[in-house]
Amino acid sequence: MSDFWRLMDDEFGAGYSRTLASSLVLAEVGGITATEALEHGESPRRVWQAVCKMQDVPPERWLGRDVAPKES
Q1: In whole angstroms, what is the distance from residue 53 CA to residue 25 CA?
Q2: SS3 track for 17-52
Q3: Residue 67: its pLDDT value, please?
Q4: Is 10 within the bounds of a domain?
Q5: Residue 71 forms part of a structural domain
């Protein structure tokens, strides 16, 4: 679940990602919002992919942005 929200925040911004998740109706997960789908136990991965398709996120960003490892 935390990966879902990290991906949403990285792609859409921390503020807008919550609005999008609670307002965008996703046909691919039964015609409900991302938030509702997650509450009903839908796989976060499936919900994330449905959001990506609806919002035309390029497939190369479906796994999130590349993050450089922290140096010790």
Answers
A1: 12
A2: HHHHHHHCEEHHHCCEEHHHHHHCCCCHHHHHHHHH
A3: 60
A4: yes
A5: no
Range of the domain at 10: 3-61
Specify whether the CB–CB gap between 41 and 32 falls below 8 A.
Answer: no
Distance CA 58, CA 27 (A): 19
Domain assignment of residue 45, yes or no: yes
In a domain, 66, yes or no: no
Q: What is the pLDDT of residue 35?
A: 97
Give 10-residue mean pLDDT values along the chain (72 residues): 93 95 96 97 96 94 73 67
Give me the half-sphere count of Cα atoms (radius 13 Å) on the Cβ side of residue 42. Answer: 23
Name the domain count of the chain: 1
For residue 61, give Cα distances in angstroms to 11, 36, 38, 39, 52.
8, 24, 21, 25, 9
pTM: 0.85
